[in-house]
UniProtKB/TrEMBL annotation:
This is LysR family transcriptional regulator. GO terms for molecular function: DNA-binding transcription factor activity; transcription cis-regulatory region binding. The lineage of its organism: Bacteria, Pseudomonadati, Pseudomonadota, Gammaproteobacteria, Pseudomonadales. PROSITE patterns: HTH_LYSR. Gene3D superfamilies: 3.40.190.290, Winged helix-like DNA-binding domain superfamily/Winged helix DNA-binding domain. The keyword Protein biosynthesis does not apply.
Length: 305
């Protein structure tokens, strides 16, 4: 590696290289980053080599043993993310002065909200994109904890999460209310008498439970079940229910497609259900951001409609 020299100036070229490095680190390899960046592995390798020469340090190990960041690489990644967030903040403030929608909107939501019939997020994204051709929407699916951490550290502008234990550093606004029922598949023994099942039936049936946070009401209902499997999200729960070997709770809007096809049924729906609230969350004391404010305003408008 070349002798370490001070970095006297950060150019546009350096920023482009940092964005490549950040993407490679997030993807975990050069090959995985190809489709995200839209360039070949050899081009990525050249960019990484240029950045390492520019900084005078090795950022990652790559070879037969796989891809791994060096200690210096982790520090550069952390510092680079801070720089890129600051640049985006600067761009947002300039856009605020011009009253033009131009820049990134980083949104993260929990999975399986696309089947929510009210579609408030969908309509708000559509409105923002229609009003500003210069808006780049970056949408990611993640766990509630990861979304809240992303909001706190500034990587995300807005997130949709279950409203269970609010964090003091975030503002929350009610977005959806959804009902979840206990479901089994058409291949499960309880399907034949789904309308009325006893607690003894539940104890004899294997159940899948989520590993994410739940309300006290949801926890109480899950305690009636014979836990035999777990899943990190609702799609995982649906997969296991459809095997015919498990029962589990799903939001009604998400299960509706399988119910309509006769592939699932709600068990004792008048008794075995719970209601959940989902909220849109933003960081308290956030910088002015015209794109984010327009998105939040559109959510309010769809709520009133």
């Amino acid at each position: 590696m070349t002798k370490k020299m001070p970095l006297h100036q950060v150019s546009d070229f350096d920023l482009r290289l940092l964005r490549v490095f950040k993407t490679v680190a997030e993807c975990g390899s050069f090959s995985a980053a190809e489709s995200v960046l839209g360039i070949t592995r050899s081009a990525i390798s050249l960019h990484m080599g240029d950045l390492e020469k520019r900084l005078g340090m090795r950022l990652c190990q790559r070879g037969r043993a796989g891809f791994a960041l060096t200690d210096e690489g982790r520090e550069v990644l952390r510092a680079g993310e801070t720089v890129l967030v600051a640049i985006e903040g600067f761009r947002s403030e300039v856009n605020q002065m011009h009253q033009q929608l131009r820049g990134d909107l980083n949104v993260a939501i929990v999975n399986n909200l696309v089947t929510q019939p009210k579609m408030r997020i969908t309509h708000a994204l559509k409105a923002v994109r229609r009003e500003g051709a210069g808006v780049r929407i970056n949408l990611s699916m993640s766990t509630p904890g990861e979304i809240e951490r992303g909001l706190v550290d500034g990587r995300l502008h807005v997130g949709a999460v279950p409203l269970i234990t609010p964090l003091s550093g975030l503002d929350y606004s009610l977005l959806y209310e959804e009902r979840s029922n206990l479901y089994c598949s058409h291949e499960h023994p309880l399907f034949a008498h789904a309308a009325g099942v006893s607690n003894d039936d539940l104890i004899r049936a294997d159940a899948v439970v989520p590993t994410y946070r739940m309300t006290a009401e949801a926890i109480g209902l899950h305690q009636l079940l014979n836990v035999a499997a777990s899943a990190t999200d609702r799609e995982g729960i649906a997969f296991l229910i459809l095997t015919g070997s498990y029962i589990g709770f799903l939001p009604d809007h998400y299960a509706a497609t399988w119910v309509e096809k006769g592939l699932m049924a709600a068990l004792d729906p008048g008794r075995l259900y719970f209601d959940s609230k989902l909220a849109v969350a933003t960081r308290k004391g956030r910088r002015p951001n015209l794109i984010l404010e327009r998105f939040l305003n559109e959510l309010q408008l769809t709520s009133a409609a």
